[in-house]
Amino acid sequence: MIQEALEKAVSEGKSVTKSGKIATYIPELSKANTEHIGACIKTVSGETYSAGDWQQPFTMQSISKTISLTLALQTAGYDKVFSKVGLEPTGDSFNSIVKLETRNPNPLNPMINAGAIATASCIPGDDPFKLFLDLARKLCLNENISLNTEVFLSEKRAGMRNRSMAYWMKSENIIEGDPEETLDLYFKMCSVNVNAGDLASWGVILANDGVNPYTGTRLIESWIARLVKTFMMTCGMYDGSGEFAIKIGIPSKSGVGGGILSSVEARMGIGVFNPSLDPKGNSVGGMRILESLSKSLGLHYFGGHTRDNLKDPI
Ligand code: GLU
Questions:
Q1: How far is the CA of 61 from the centre of ligand 1 (A)?
Q2: Burial zone of 12 (CB within 10 Å; 0-12 exposed, 13-18 middle, 19+ buried)
Q3: pLDDT of residue 105
Q4: Is 238 a catalytic residue?
Q5: Which of 26, 92, 157, 254 to mutate to test the pocket of ligand 1 (most atoms within 8 A of CB)?
Q6: Is the CB–ligand 1 distance for residue 256 below 6 Å?
Q7: Residue 125, number of CB atoms within 10 A of its CB
């Protein structure tokens, strides 16, 4: 039943890929193929389902914010991290600068670019990217995850907006170290290659309260899993998070590479991929896949609706 629902969801996703656009503000991302679409589901009971181009690699982009936040909480601790960033959704785009000055010197949450840059600056040690990569490999259950150097260099060259936010935060003492070092770390974390299967692994670990469902080993503390999932629900889909929560209702985090990480509490992790984006930066095909799965498998956080409820307005 899950495999059937997944294949149907991917074919529904395929039908909308033309309505979006590829991200071009990072030049290297514009090489992706908007027709690529795929998804993978991993359940807490150990089954895997996949369809379409689920093995196609893409860079994590903003999905890395879930792992860098986890790492910052593990290494620097809750008080330090949340002295730098807030707990609130912004309603603004992922790369918005405006609220840094008008609302608060601190970025409102760690899922927007400014917040993730501030969070990255909290990670201690001589080689924080190595710590990140080690954790990403552990949480995606894939030892081969690695940096896409072309995307990293492309983003480093093009990332002037992120650079301005980092320097602004330096002027407010939110970033303590060298802003260029923090930016390099942030750009590298965004430029790690994964596939939909890797995201499904991280999603199922979150769904299983931080425990690897295949071995029973705890990989992250329960409170961190809860905190990350809550941010995914409230801020994970940029300024589309409210509508996504109403219509689809699955804690998710998207990235402008076209991936979406989703976690269905106590049930499954889902990774989806399609690099065709809507104006907010969310994958068009990916969101359609999740909408279809939410309806056919009853995955909405607050109670499943199914396609039988054809009279429901959403
Ligand atoms: N690396 C991207 C940026 O900083 C991440 C954006 C995203 O995926 O939302 O602009």
A1: 5
A2: middle
A3: 76
A4: yes
A5: 26
A6: yes
A7: 10
The preferred substitution site among 28, 113, 119 for testing ligand 1, maximizing ligand atoms within 8 Å of CB, is 113
Rounded to whole angstroms, the Cα distance separating 284 from 83 reads 35
* Mean pLDDT, each 10-residue run in order, the chain (314 residues): 97 96 92 96 98 98 98 98 92 74 80 95 97 98 98 97 95 93 98 98 98 98 98 95 95 98 98 97 97 95 66 68
167 among known catalytic residues: no
The pLDDT value recorded for residue 305 is 60
Domain ranges of the chain: 2-61+194-300, 63-190
- Residue 204 known to be catalytic: no
What is the H or E stretch that residue 60 is in? none
Q: pTM here?
A: 0.95
Q: Can you spell out the DSSP letters for 216-246?
A: --B-S-HHHHHHHHHHHHHHTTGGGHHHHHH
Q: What is the pLDDT of residue 98?
A: 72
Domain 2-61+194-300: CATH class, spelled out:
alpha beta
> What contacts 238, CB < 8 A, 6 or more positions away?
62, 93, 94, 112, 254, 280, 281, 282
State in words which class domain 63-190 has. alpha beta
